[in-house]
Amino acid sequence: MTWMLLAACTPKPEATAPTDPTTPSSSTTSSPTPTTPADTAATTPTGDTATTTVPPGLIYPEAPYDCGLGVPAGEPAVRRLTGITTTEALTFDLDGYLVAWDAGANVVQYAVDGSVQVLAPNAGEAKGIDLLNDGDIAYTHGTLPQLRGVDHATGAPYLIAELGGAGSYCDIDVASDGTVVTGDLSGDARIVEADGTVVDFGRIAVQLYGAAFSVSEDTAYWSGYSQSDPWIFRSERGADGTWSQPTRWVEIEDSTLSGMAVDACDNLQPSCSPSAAGCTGSTPRARSSC
Fold first, then answer.
1. In angstroms, what CA-CA distances link 101 with 30, 84, 201, 245?
2. Rounded to 5 degrees, what angle do the CA atoms 100, 5, 187 make?
3. In this predicted model, what pLDDT tens digit does every residue of 173-189 receive, in sequence order?
4. SS3 of residue 42 by DSSP
5. Distance between CA atoms of residues 263 and 61, nearest Å
6. Which of 114, 124, 236, 263 shows its CA 20 to 30 Å from the CA of 36?
7. Average pLDDT estimate for 213-233
8. pLDDT digits (tens, 9 = 90+) for 52-66
9. Is the pLDDT of residue 86 over 90?
């Protein structure tokens, strides 16, 4: 069974393109390396199609996969859940609950039978939601430039990092060591290291929405939310642990990109908002799911 909820990060009025997207913000806590990677990975083949093992460091229980099988055929089973009216993302916790936000800005957990319980009351509006490796829930605040957490045992919200910028941070992805990637609707890109250090890349796009790590977690991706700037951006982590300044990687024309994810075979799967004309320009490692 697949549970589905379609939501979009409410956009600000579209801003103009940045004049110099390669220059990090002067307020950078940890500066990215000035060297940018060559844009050769856009045509790099996918992982070994015979692979049936599981990438290391996963939070969830391991499950075998075969990269040669592709996406299963047929329509997904959809089950509508009532009460979720403000959440812009969702995740599963280690107890198997579907975690979301309700209309009262409470963190709620849905069981398989559809029953719901409140995990954290009055946690504040959330946009991006993901699971931390200790079982807590990480989220970007809806109006403040903050990355927050919810203690899974007590339901108490806490601050992980001040992100700076305008505060409209959307999607997040959490690596196995606790590193978080995110971007906001003003086009600012951030990586929060496991120790809380914020890598501030400055404004790299007109608007950003989606964020994801590669399987190796040495590549970070962001998706551009503006239809005038429909690019996937990419940063690489060097041998010294520092991240390169994000660069444009793949353009998906006539699209308003929103959330995205990387599958077990290291394919990047971006999605489009309903208003987009469609996704085109896919590559072996960036395949559209619109």
1. 32, 7, 29, 33
2. 80
3. 999 999 999 999 899 99
4. helix
5. 15
6. 263
7. 88
8. 344 444 455 566 667
9. no
Structure tokens, 217: 């977690």
Long-range contact pairs involving 48-52 (C-beta distance under 8 Å, separation at least 24): 49/265, 51/265
* C-alpha span between 110 and 96 (Å, rounded): 9
Sign of the torsion formed by the C-alpha atoms of 16, 248, 21 and 215: positive
Sheet holding 98-101, edge to edge: 91-92, 98-101, 107-110, 116-120
The strand pair at 2-3 and 78-79 is best described as parallel
Q: Could you tell me whether strands 257-262 and 98-101 are parallel, antiparallel, or unpaired per DSSP bridges?
A: unpaired
Instruction: For residue 191, report the phi and psi dihedrals to the nearest 5 degrees.
Output: -130, 130
Classify 43 as helix, strand or coil.
helix
What mean pLDDT is predicted for residues 160-182? 92
Virtual torsion, Cα 266, 136, 163, 224, nearest 10 deg: 30
* pLDDT tens-digit map of 107-150: 988 887 778 889 999 888 888 999 998 999 999 988 899 999 99
Query: What is the C-alpha R_g of the chain?
Result: 18
Write the DSSP symbol of residue 237: B
DSSP letter at 216 equals T
